[in-house]
Amino acid sequence: MAKLSEGVIQFFQNQDFTIVSTLDADGGVHNSCKGIVRVSENGEIYLLDLYEGKTYENLKRNADISITAVDEHRFKGYCLKGKGRIIAGDQLDPQLITAWGARIASRLTQRLLKNIHEEKGHPRHPEALLPQPKYMIVMKVGEIVDLTPQHLK
Q1: pTM of the entire structure?
Q2: Quick count: other Cβ atoms within 10 Å of Cβ 88?
Q3: Between the CA of residue 15 and those of 1, 47, 71, 90, what are the distances in Å?
Q4: For the chain, how many structural domains are there in total?
Q5: Rounded to 5 degrees, what angle do the CA atoms 119, 128, 17 make?
Q6: DSSP assignments along 50-77, one per residue
Q7: What residues contact 100, with CB distance under 8 A and at least 6 apart?
């Protein structure tokens, strides 16, 4: 398992969402947007998933997973590769649900503030319409890929 630096931890914790990639039954890549709830120094990433869809089915069959995030403004990004496991909804830590709720409230607040400043986004405030999480993905990071171009490091 890869140990994550404080810089990588902060980078992922500051992302509103990440791209999670899993493999489908035919070996094709499936991408979905997920929010991170917690990142631990020992290389574990905790994500709550709101739906038991393709990501869920893929992880039941194959534990390979990657999480990618980029910051276009800073021209920086990472891809974390590893193995994921599913924790059923009835076994979720209440503290993680509370942390998820706080992140959603923060995103909703930021959207409202941007709308007040007339930076119109989605008209319906989608965060307010999100269902409760169905399960949690815990990923053990095996590899960290720095996506920042070499000449900019």
Answers
A1: 0.78
A2: 9
A3: 22, 12, 8, 27
A4: 1
A5: 70
A6: S--SHHHHHHHH--EEEEEEEETTTTEE
A7: 35, 37, 48, 133
The encoded tokens of residue 99 equal 């942390």
- Over the stretch 89-140, which tens digit does the pLDDT of each residue have? 788 788 877 877 777 666 666 666 666 666 565 555 555 455 577 788 999 9
Q: What residues make up the domain containing 29?
A: 6-90+133-152
The single-letter code of the amino acid at 44 is E
Secondary structure string (H, E, C) spanning 102-136: HHHHHHHHHHHHHHHCCCCCCCCCHHHHCCCCCEE
**19 part of a folded domain:** yes
Whether residue 127 is contained in a domain is answered as no
